[in-house]
Amino acid sequence: MSTTRVRFAPSPTGPLHIGGLRTALYNYLFTKSLGGSFILRIEDTDRNRYVSGAEQYILDALNWSGIKIDEGGKAGGLLGPYKQSERLSTYRVKAEDLVNRGCAYYAFDTEEELEHMRAKRTEAGEHSPRYDYSIREKMHTSLNLSKTEVQEKLAAGNPWVIRFKTPESGTVVFTDLIRGEIRFECNQLDDKVLLKSDGWPTYHLANVVDDQYMQISHVIRGEEWLSSTALHVLLYQAFKWEKDMPQFAHLPLILKPEGKGKLSKRDGARLGMPVFPMEWKEPDTGDLFLGFKEMGFLPEAMINFIALLGWNPGIEQEIFSMEELIGKFSIEKVGKAGARFDFDKAKWFNHQYIQKLSQEELAKEVLSFFEKSDIKTDNIKLIQVCGLMKERIQLLSELPGKSQFFFSDDFKMDTKQLRNRWKEDSEEILTNLLDVLSGLVEFKTEEIESVVKTFISEKGLSFGKVLPLLRLASSGTMEGPDLFPTLEILGSEKVIERITNLIKMDKN
Ligand code: GLU
To answer: Is 265 designated active site?
Structure first.
């Protein structure tokens, strides 16, 4: 088994957002750069927030993103189960072990007793009253009950919890690979719940036990978990697992496009940009959130974009394949400061990746977007259109709308442009052009260009008088792709039909 072992440990409380995906990606890049393993562990201990469909979503999103799981999920592995709900008996044994060794205790406090304690501490001037070393002896716990009394209470079936007995004094010190030395004073920590009488552990206990049993070497996660690490380090010490303790790295936040505050689901809706890799439908409300995929991103472009949200390789290069990212990634080059989510930059990356595709590859990628629109395509034409249009799109989803006129006569005419460009001699010009174009044996870009240009010069006309008319006739817009290849793709019959239609059209 490789010695570098990282885990991505999402809770299935909703879809994986872009911050979660970046955590998965950095874990993946880190471990792959060292020849290590990437483990997926589902942390489903928070039953109240469990969302059905979330777990499958996480698997699908990782798969679409190109992040391959070595252990967990369908990949299996020797150190499973990789889902916490399937490991409950282990947590119970470990929590009781801590109680027996004096590092944790049973607490039988009722809700009223807890309320009373909090009220008293608040009265005494504390902002967020803690359950800590200073009051635990006065509470309803195994610390001030005999062994028999504790057994009786447990047997009576009253609810209880096991709390960690945080040392009264001392400092927890650990080195974060991104943030350097981190210190927490023990007397500032509370005695967190580790396990509840329904048999379910809390995040802290399950997380540490699993990291130990799954032989995790590095814990790379979001900065919101930094303060929990104090308890995790204390748990490693209490279990006498210090020598196996993983190294920690806490990633910076992903910030709103404005640069202040954490990027949220609401920002996505507010700014019309995706904050999830793939589409997500809220099971309760039915609200639909489009993902990068449905918005028309290639997964490689999305990965390249999020790789650079917080990691700075310190070189000019911006375009990195997954292989190159693995080759260049180093956790020391991840910054502490939050990284701004710049959607224009994401689209820029996507444009770059679209340019790398051949026209055949692009045609495959855009097919599903055409299927969702009412536009009927044929394969050969779609491939030609892709070759011509690829420079002009940032998102795959833009292509059907921008190329509709190739496949259907039902396109919009820019009437304002038409009114501006239509002059007294326009009809005559187009009628003559009809003759010129229908005389062509080979309806190919070069031939079309050559006869049209000869026509313009022979008649003493200007490009500006003729080409816009041809553009509007064939596509209804002045913003379409290059004119002559467009005419070739449309084909002589269609071009002649459209010029004829424009001549007949009411211009007012
Ligand atoms: N289950 C936690 C989460 O949802 C994992 C945190 C960790 O990686 O330790 O983010």
So the answer is: yes
